[in-house]
Structure formats: structure tokens, C-alpha cells
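Reopening: C-alpha cells for the adenosine-5'-diphosphate complex, inputs below.
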Amino acid sequence: MSTLKMVILGRQGSGKGTQSLLICEAYGAIHVSTGEMLRSAVAQASTLGLQAQQIMESGSLVSDEIMNGLVAERFNHRDITEHGVLLDGFPRTVAQANALESILEGRGQDLDIAINLDVPLDIVTDRMLARSRKDDTPEAIKRRLDLYEKETEPLLDWFTSRNLLHSVDGVGSETEVFARISASIADNTEASRLSASVDTREAQR
Ligand code: ADP
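Re-run output (same inputs, fresh job):
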């Protein structure tokens, strides 16, 4: 199958993490979650972890400089070139989106699609209050959702202007939502169209 380079966007609590795992399993892409990368750095008490911990606990964003460096470094690993990637949690700001564009340009690669998992604010707030992650205090949740509106919503325009954005209704069962996402990937990415036509030819033999 051709490799896909994808981004998934969506409010905190939109089910992005769960859907990311399903997408990666189906398309063989590498799941790059910047939240997970940071949490593992915190757990290891690395220099990055020590820098990020307080920022994360307060619900603020880690600086673009740190995040761009972290992701650029991750793209040096061959697995992404070989298997494709789903970026989850990055980019979160327009500056990060511009950095991603340069990282890919430097490798002669393009993004295939940005999937926006759309779930209304009242539903994500309830979902987040119901889970019990250490950084999910009501104050931190509000702070993160406010930041999302401010920093991340402009990203939707950024991806739209590059003709990459496809919104998917994120309300429904995991299976229903995943079916909508797969349909969107199939309809809107050149690489998956090519591999689908190869599959069809093979099936016809
Ligand atoms: P959530 O979607 O609930 O915010 P994540 O796992 O994506 O969860 O991220 C957890 C925290 O890690 C964020 O609140 C933020 O502090 C930090 N973080 C993750 N990705 C980024 C990023 N791209 N830019 C800045 N900070 C980030």
C-alpha cells in the first residue's frame, strides 16, 4: 500500500487518540502523538520532560521551538518514510504547521490529508470530565479548550487553503466514526486511490 502522511485535528476529548490507533492499524502508518512523546519524556525525567511537565500540568502549550525540534527529529527515523505517518497533537499552531511544511519539503514529501474530527464543545467537556487523567482538572480542561479555539482553530483555515482539510462528524460509536474517517481518506487521498486501484486490479486477476 502507498504510504500516507496524515494529520488528525480535533478538540481534546474528541476521540482523536482512539481513532488514531484505528487509522494506523488500518493503513500501516506510524502514530506520532506529541502528547505521548511529552508524557514519556516526563516519565523519564529527561531534560525535555523537566521543561514540559509544569507547562502540561497547567494546560498550556509547550513552545513551538521545542515541539518543532521534537517532530523534526522524529521525521529522521526511517519508519515514517517507509510506512507513512499520522500526526496526532501536532501541528497545534500555525507556526507548527509552517514548520511541518518545511520538514516535509526538505524531504520532498507532501501531506496527503488533514482529518478534522468534529465534536461539539459541550460533548467534549463532558467526556473529559468523565476520564481521570492527572492533567484533566476542570481548570486545565477549560484552559486547553480555550487555547484550542485560539491557537488551533486558525489551523483549520491553514489546511483548508491548501485543500487538505476534511471534516468528519465525530459523534457516534467508535466504529461509526472510523467508517466515516476511512471513507474520507479513500475519497480524498491520491495515494489511497492508487493503492485501491491496484487492489482492484489484483482482485480482478
Ligand atoms: P490533549 O489533546 O488532551 O491536550 P495531548 O496528549 O495531545 O492531550 O497533549 C497533552 C499536553 O501536551 C498538551 O496540553 C500540551 O501541554 C502538550 N502538547 C502536546 N502536543 C503539543 C504541541 N504540538 N504543541 C504544544 N504543546 C503540546
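The chain has one domain: 4-204. The beta strands are 4-10, 30-33, 84-88, 113-118, 165-169. Marking as resolved unless the reporter disagrees.
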